[in-house]
Amino acid sequence: MAQARDQWTTRTGFILAAVGSAIGLGNIWRYPYVVYDNGGGAFLLPYFFALLTAGIPILLLEYSLGHKYRGSGPLSFRRLSKKWEWLGWWQSLIAFLISGYYMVILGWALSYTYYSFGTQWGSETQTFFLEKYLGAADFGSFTPQLKVLIPVVLLWAFVYYVMRQQAHRGIEKLARILMPLLVIMLVIITIRGVTLPGAAEGLNTLFTPDFTALADPQVWVAAYGQVFFSLSVGFATMITYASYLNKKEDLANSGLVAAFANSGFEFMAAIGIFGALGFLAAQSGVGVDEVVNQGVILAFVIFPQIINELPFLNSFFGVTFFGALVFAGLTSIVSLLEPAISAIRDKTGAARTTVVNWIVGLAALMSVLYATDGGLNYLDTIDHYLNSYGLLIAATLMAVATAWTTRKVGELQSHINQVSDVHIGKWWVICVSVVTPVMLIIMTGLNIRTEWLVPYSGYPMPWLIGMGWGALVAVLIAAVILQSKEWKVNTGQAEQQEKEGA
Ligand code: PFF
């Protein structure tokens, strides 16, 4: 007899968990820099194109798969067609791999929340972060850094506690507590950012459109990558979350609410952060473009500088900013772990606590790699490959599986329309079956070619291939092996399962 499926208490609980998953590091530190680096105001065009033709349609596709087939990624795909179960495993395992380094960034943020008291990073924020805190060394160096390891272990202990509980007691409750706090913190950061002297210059820099960027395929890749990562689609997370939703609940509305809440949040974060960057530039007497930097440096080197320069309440704003990163990240990391946990429970019928012991234990072990002195290189490499390739390839395959090989998109559309107030039309079918896969295939092809010629970040090719492609292929092999194993539970159609009380 299958065990009862976890279930959210209400639709609001589901939406909060989904928005909690979506709003994370991707919104606060990744988005502002991605906009700036990819054409400023002009980037909004590929961003909205990717959001409306790929992000929201694939989000609804995931909702419909999880809700109709009432299973984790592998179980839902298995019910769609026996041939595609591995794709659910691949996605769930990619999410699991991400959790290993995502947590280390949260560990840095937790340390910096503590360092904010009395701005303990001092005036040389770059030396502090790279040398004193990370002890940054080259590829091939594996000495653990205690300063990083301790906060990471503390956070894992907390996440372990949350994950042991059923989804509505753990994940949902976490989102119910942290999301409102996060909104308040973001409002504080944004208001502070835009009211600083020099803020207008920062916003001008952010939004001044560079239309030539639109001809660059990399800009489009960046838009798709940002939209997918930020919305948490392509990792079977939303399939899993939707499978915990009551059978009659609305899907289309929930998807639109989640998507617009997520975009609104990143928009506000970008305004606040660029306001603050304008202020720093004015204080240092340089152009805004000289103080902008990529995600890691922006958050942990430039932001501490801004906090040093603030006229008053420096520690308070430091704690608010880094605390917001921790809170936003916590509600996301649980959603990176849940797909694998749910999948293994579905496949083996094992108790939640047993599976959580394994998954959280292994993910915490993986984190040790990134908490070493060479960790920043490993983190950057794995992050790039999982997100620029793994994610986009997985999303393409989802479209191929549902629209091209099984031709079930129509059925999934009817499923959404049966339960939702807002009806979705033909546009959805066209986006899922044609526009998105075609765009993703073109972009992935171009990306592979570009990076074949110029290795990512100038890193050594053997490391890039070994770690980046190595990780993707390793989880693919694991996915195929898992597909070949027997199910201990009923994989018949969801309706039948429901009758048995599952
Ligand atoms: N959406 C999260 C962020 O913006 O940081 C990251 C994420 C969480 C991606 C969960 C994927 C996922 F399944």
Automatic annotation (TrEMBL):
Q: Which GO terms describe its cellular component?
A: membrane
Q: Which residues form a coiled coil?
A: none
What Pfam families has UniProt attached to this entry?
SNF
Instruction: List the subcellular locations.
Output: Membrane
Family annotation (SUPFAM superfamilies): SNF-like
Query: InterPro entries, alphabetically?
Result: Na/ntran_symport, SNS_sf
The record, for CDD domains, names: SLC6sbd_u1
Sorted UniProt keywords: Membrane, Transmembrane, Transmembrane helix, Transport
Q: Could you list the residue ranges that cross the membrane?
A: 12-31, 43-65, 86-110, 146-163, 175-199, 219-244, 256-282, 316-337, 349-369, 389-406, 427-448, 460-482
Annotated membrane topology:
Multi-pass membrane protein
Instruction: Enumerate the NCBIfam families for this protein.
Output: Na_transp
What name is this protein filed under? NSS family neurotransmitter:Na+ symporter
Q: Which organism is it from?
A: Melghirimyces profundicolus
